[in-house]
Automatic annotation (TrEMBL):
Origin organism lineage: Bacteria, Bacillati, Actinomycetota, Actinomycetes, Kitasatosporales
One Pfam family this sequence matches: IclR_C
Record's protein name: IclR family transcriptional regulator
Entry-linked SUPFAM superfamilies: GAF domain-like (SSF55781), Winged helix' DNA-binding domain (SSF46785)
Highest taxon of source: Bacteria
Domain HTH iclR-type: start-end pairs: 6-67
Sorted UniProt keywords: DNA-binding, Transcription, Transcription regulation
Ranges where the IclR-ED domain occurs: 68-213
Keyword Cell membrane: no
Length: 213
C-alpha cells in the first residue's frame, strides 16, 4: 500500500476477488484468515458491500458474490468491444472471414463483437449476442483448452461444422487479461481452415489482449 491508496477499498476489493474464486462462499473466519485481519474488520467490509448488493450472505452465514456485480459486469462488454474492434477489423479484412470476440457467460460462449469483411462476395452472417455452449465451436473450445493449459497445444483451435453445416472456424484464447475470459476467432464457409488462419487468429488474440491490459 502507498500513501495514495485506500486500505479499506483495497481490502473490500480483495474480499470480492476471494468470493469470486469460490463456488461455495466463505465464512467471516475464513475471510479473516485469508485477509490477515480481525473478524470485526471483515464484518464491516461485508456490511458495506451488502449495502451495494455486491455481496450476499446465506442462512449459514457464508458470504457470496451478490447480484450487484452482474450490473457492473454488463458495462464491461461495451468497453471490451471497443478495445477489440481495431484488431477484429484487421483480422476480418486480412482473412476475408467474419471475425468475432467471444466472452464466457456462465456455461455459454457469448459473441460480444463481430466484424464482417467488406470485400468478399459472401461470408458467414454472425451476430453479436449469439451464444452457444462452450464445448461447441472454435470460440468455446479455445477457451476450454486455455483452462487446461496444454503445453503442446499450438495456441489456437480449429473446428468444422460444429455450429453451422459447411462452416469452419478458428479461435485463440485471450491470455493474461485479468477478469476477462474469452477468445478471438473467425468463421468462414470452407471445407477446411487454411493453414495461415490459425497463426493469424493467434496474433489477433494477442493484439486484443494487449489492448485490454
Amino acid at each position: 500500500m502507498t500513501a495514495e491508496t485506500s486500505q479499506t477499498l483495497d481490502r473490500g476489493l480483495r474480499v470480492l476477488k476471494l468470493l469470486a474464486d469460490t463456488d461455495h462462499g466463505l465464512t467471516v473466519t475464513e475471510l479473516s484468515n485469508k485477509l490477515g485481519v480481525n473478524r470485526t474488520v471483515v464484518y464491516r467490509l461485508l456490511a458495506t458491500l451488502e449495502q451495494h448488493a455486491l455481496v450476499r450472505r446465506d442462512l449459514g452465514g457464508r458470504a457470496r458474490v451478490g447480484l450487484g456485480v452482474l450490473r457492473l459486469g454488463r458495462q464491461v462488454h461495451p468497453l471490451v468491444r471497443e478495445a477489440a474492434l481495431p484488431a477484429l477489423r484487421s483480422l476480418a479484412e486480412d482473412i476475408g472471414a467474419t471475425a468475432h470476440l467471444t466472452l464466457v457467460d456462465g456455461s455459454d460462449a457469448l459473441a460480444v463483437a463481430v466484424v464482417e469483411p467488406t470485400w468478399t462476395d459472401y461470408h458467414v452472417a454472425y451476430r453479436a449476442g449469439f451464444r452457444h455452449s462452450l464445448d461447441r465451436g472454435a470460440a468455446g473450445r479455445a477457451i476450454l483448452t486455455a483452462r487446461q493449459k496444454t503445453a503442446d497445444h499450438p495456441g489456437y483451435t480449429l473446428t468444422q461444422g460444429e455450429l453451422e453445416a459447411g462452416a469452419c472456424g478458428a479461435a485463440a484464447p485471450l491470455l493474461g487479461v485479468s477478469g476477462v475470459e474469452g477468445s478471438v476467432g473467425v468463421v468462414m464457409l470452407a471445407d477446411a481452415v487454411p493453414e495461415r488462419v490459425g497463426p493469424r487468429v493467434l496474433d489477433a488474440a494477442r493484439e486484443v489482449a494487449d489492448a485490454l491490459r
